[in-house]
Amino acid sequence: xxxxxxxxxxxxxxxxxxxxxxxxxxxxxxxxxxxxxxxxxxxxxxxxxxxxxxxxxxxxxxxxxxxxxxxxxxxxxxxxxxxxxxxxxxxxxxxxxxxxxxxxxxxxxxxxxxxxxxxxxxxxxxxxxxxxxxxxxxxxxxxxxxxxxxxxxxxxxxxxxxxxxxxxxxxxxxxxxxxxxxxxxxxxxxxxxxxxxxxxxxxxxxxxxxxxxxxxxxxxxxxxxxxxxxxxxxxxxxxxxxxxxx
Amino acid sequence: xxxxxxxxxxxxxxxxxxxxxxxxxxxxxxxxxxxxxxxxxxxxxxxxxxxxxxxxxxxxxxxxxxxxxxxxxxxxxxxxxxxxxxxxxxxxxxxxxxxxxxxxxxxxxxxxxxxxxxxxxxxxxxxxxxxxxxxxxxxxxxxxxxxxxxxxxxxxxxxxxxxxxxxxxxxxxxxxxxxxxxxxxxxxxxxxxxxxxxxxxxxxxxxxxxxxxxxxxxxxxxxxxxxxxxxxxxxxxxxxxxxxxxxxxxxxxxxxxxxxxxxxxxxxxxxxxxxxxxxxxxxxxxxxxxxxxxxxxxxxxxxxxxxxxxxxxxxxxxxxxxxxxxxxxxxxxxxxxxxxxxxxxxxxxxxxxxxxxxxxxxxxxxxxxxxxxxxxxxxxxxxxxxxxxxxxxxxxxxxxxxxxxxxxxx
Amino acid sequence: xxxxxxxxxxxxxxxxxxxxxxxxxxxxxxxxxxxxxxxxxxxxxxxxxxxxxxxxxxxxxxxxxxxxxxxxxxxxxxxxxxxxxxxxxxxxxxxxxxxxxxxxxxxxxxxxxxxxxxxxxxxxxxxxxxxxxxxxxxxxxxxxxxxxxxxxxxxxxxxxxxxxxxxxxxxxxxxxxxxxxxxxxxxxxxxxxxxxxxxxxxxxxxxxxxxxxxxxxxxxxxxxxxxxxxxxxxxxxxxxxxxxxxxxxxxxxxxxxxxxxxxxxxxxxxxxxxxxxxxxxxxxxxxxxxxxxxxxxxxxxxxxxxxxxxxxxxxxxxxxxxxxxxxxxxxxxxxxxxxxxxxxxxxxxxxxxxxxxxxxxxxxxxxxxxxxxxxxxxxxxxxxxxxxxxxxxxxxxxxxxxxxxxxxxxxxxxxxxxxxxxxxxxxxxxxxxxxxxxxxxxxxxxxxxxxxxxxxxxxxxxxxxxxxxxxxxxxxxxxxxxxxxxxxxxxxxxxxxxxxxxxxxxxxxxxxxxxxxxxxxxxxxxxxxxxxxxxxxxxxxxxxxxxxxxxxxxxxxxxxxxxxxxxxxxxxxxxxxxxxxxxxxxxxxxxxxxxxxxxxxxxxxxxxxxxxxxxxxxxxxxxxxxxxxxxxxxxxxxxxxxxxxxxxxxx
Lengths: 246, 410, 651
Description:
- The complex is a heterotrimer of chains A (about 250), B (about 400) and C (about 650).
- With about 250 residues, chain A is an alpha/beta fold.
- Chain A has a single domain, classed as 3-Layer(aba) Sandwich (Rossmann fold).
- Chain A contains ten helices and ten strands.
- Chain C has four domains: about 130 residues, no CATH class; about 60 residues, no CATH class; about 50 residues, no CATH class; about 300 residues, ABC transporter involved in vitamin B12 uptake, BtuC (Orthogonal Bundle), CATH 1.10.3470.
- Chain C is extended and about 115 Å long.
- Chain C has 27 helices and twelve strands.
- In chain C, the strands form four sheets. Chain C has a five-stranded antiparallel β-sheet. Chain C has a three-stranded antiparallel β-sheet with strand order 6-10-7.
- Chains B and C meet through helix 6, helix 7, helix 12, helix 14 and helix 16 of B and helix 13, helix 19, helix 24, helix 26 and helix 27 of C.
């Protein structure tokens, strides 16, 4: 089976500092993957490159069965072909209701004219309710999302991601600042999502990753240091050196 | 469906009702159709004010809803005025020229008439040839299309360039200001083909309507302005109420997020920019026939900044706020600068409001920005009991310019 | 060679004749030529004047001057010549030319006045030139040469050449030589000498040279067939081109009798009007004449009736004109002279072009200095602090008005400028600090609102200035030592004020770099800008730093205001003229980098001058195109010339 996303040999540098150095990475359909690594390992930059926010100096990012090159596409187009991204800090439209937030994200024609004359149909509303149910915000639908708690905002953002029906979900530190109970809920949502699509999670919290029960990629200084199950990589001498200091 | 649209926008019915009452009231007090309590010149002022409210709505849509602080929308307003002014001036001069040539022994040819019109219109800039931009000036239909097309195209080209390169925030504001400056400097030239700093004049005289007194004409324009304002209000309500409104407010608050949701942010911005430019131009096309004259000074960058001031004072992000701001500030301004406000004698110095009104306006604008960021419209919230959530934004990132963090600071 | 020989001949003649005539008195010379003098004719007078001028007698100049001014009289009884002074209307006192002594009073009836006509007076004037050119007073010599340069004549050439050899003052000698060559070009009859003189001016920048060469190259347009075979033809001209519009060509052919005269469109119309009979003209109803075709038809009918001049409806005329050969012909008959002049003019044009380019570069540089001055304060408040201060232009205006007020108090312009600079800094520094404390600090991180609030301040300040100083422009006079310009040659010059502004801009750049890189305030400013919380935790008071930085930026704007006020008029709206350009300068250069601001100012300054050079009549258009260019530039470098890179800048 061919890979969903095939990143090969990408490098990018900012003013001489190599943030990503000859990084290669691939993920299949319906696969769950966690990326860990110390600060400055290039995790977020990696996501920036895949989603089109940053242009790499070299390398290719190939997508899907047709192996389309994502480099040079703009963010919106990459999002439309099926890559959803959740940012490190929760970014939802705080001035708008939870319902509107989800409705924006529900996949439909995104062109201005179509959106201008768009009126939600029964199936769109049903979809929003179903998503709200998944992320546990059914009771909050009418509230302004700015009033939600930090954890709820994170869920809402994941819900918005799911509403896009992406084939690949990139999730940056979903559990940051959550209580233990909230983390468990988050794990459940992600695992559920991972059944039907590829999910890449960046996280610092090892317990959280352990619960995801998935393959782990360790990044260090912009390249892959180790890959395998969590137990496997934590036994890797290089990884131990990096985390504990040499 | 219609019903739910009005239900979603309770302010719409209230506004339309008030506007209808106002227009009717003014008509019944006018010199032409009523008691004569309101002078013709004041009817014109009111009609112009409605046009200013219209352009303020456009500004609110582009700034208050989409977050693009454009300092160029008054330029589009002016361009709209120029476009209709070209026809008014051409058609009226044509009538005059044809009348004067009628007394000549043999009837004039078409080219003789057009030459005579040319030297009438462009005599002041030492020319008599029609520049290419006057190509359609003889046809009202075509020139009305130009009212929409020219500002629309300028906005399209400029917006496409600016948004494509992802210029945002204050940079975009400065860029739009530069565009406005370039446009006004261009029009100041004598060889711009629009009579340089003389501008277009005599626009209050509709061609072929010399028999209709200005008092009647002013009421017609008042009604036309009111109708245009009402339609703009309805259209804007429609635009901002649905998912489109949701998306553009999303762009205002967090552009990147919208982009990662798969929306082409640039496309939306461009759409709104062009749409509002056209709205502004329509406002201008109604305003300048009432003002009677348009010249490049009207387009100077400062006018566009005033536009932003009206919207800010009225309360941005709500359509009625823009209307309140434009109406309140321009009417108060007329009152002060018209010499009606009583001077204050401080003993050692007499404060003449004609001189000091601008100072007062500037300072009150600073105060509104500092202490009442919601503007006058914010008072409505107190009555309706609506409060925005006390949002806690994320720590300020390096992109201190993005709007979300700004609002987090409130 | 020929010129050399000519010179020798003239020098010999000048020396020879006095030797021969040594024993004569001037009266004898006059008497020898008495007949010619009495006849007083332009054609025959030459030998007499030459003899007087060549006599070498000290009184010769006096004779010529008196003769020219109609003060020379002849005594009827013996035909002797004297100069006279009027005693009363009937009586004149005569003076002898040789001895300058009075001869006695005579009745007017016994005398006859010599009345040289203008032609003779001109000949006398030319003869007088040699005396002026050899005058012992150097000042009068150079005056005479300059007069010749201004208003030269063919007759000046010989005396001028004669005077060169005897000239002792090297400066005047050089001047004489240049003038001699200029005259040679215009008046010498020997083409070789003219060509040599022309070639001597290769690459010369002086306006006089161009003024002499251009008439040599004057051309007229003529029909080729009307010219003699040896005409000095420059080139062929096509009828209907820019050099020869179709109407001109036609008119020339008509004048040459090659074509019958054609009535113009308005003449035809007048003819129609004149021939209206019973509402009809030429068989066409008057009401139908609102169409050119109908008018033409009616006119043709009138032509066939023979009541109006012939008119050929167009096409054949055009062909006739097109098939006629027109040429551009030099008025100067000699081809080698015109060729040499063209070649020399080409070298001159090249030299002038080079100097004009340098002049343009200097202009661009001084404009860039002004933009830099206006923008450097903004580079601090906007570039470093990220605060959009729309009142920046009004701070410039405040600085300029401070300078004006200081000049009202201190009349000495030098002292007042020296006082005005620190005074302007203090005033605008205080204004900046007040503005930061009262307004800006509440709006950090809300840039759009800062923009609007500072705009409120700007319109208030503008109106206050208008209320205090009125709407008319106030002068800010520069000290006398800044008047005038540094002149390199006729093309290249730069005014001292511009040099001063350039120097001031350099000083500001130095001061800015010093403050930012070497002082505690600079360090703290950079720290606070990059991370206010971190800076605060290190014991830096961000409030204080922000306040001082903003004050500094505003203060520099004040000084810039004084400098700009010297160069332009001080009005309450002057700030608004600079604000957009200043922002453009900072944005184009790259926000947050002073070198970027410098590059931005240079780029915009040179660009604007460059565009003005392409279309010199229209500075408004130059500004328009420049702004359009900037908008397009930002497409390609949205972060400016010097862009900060990295993840931080990318967000």
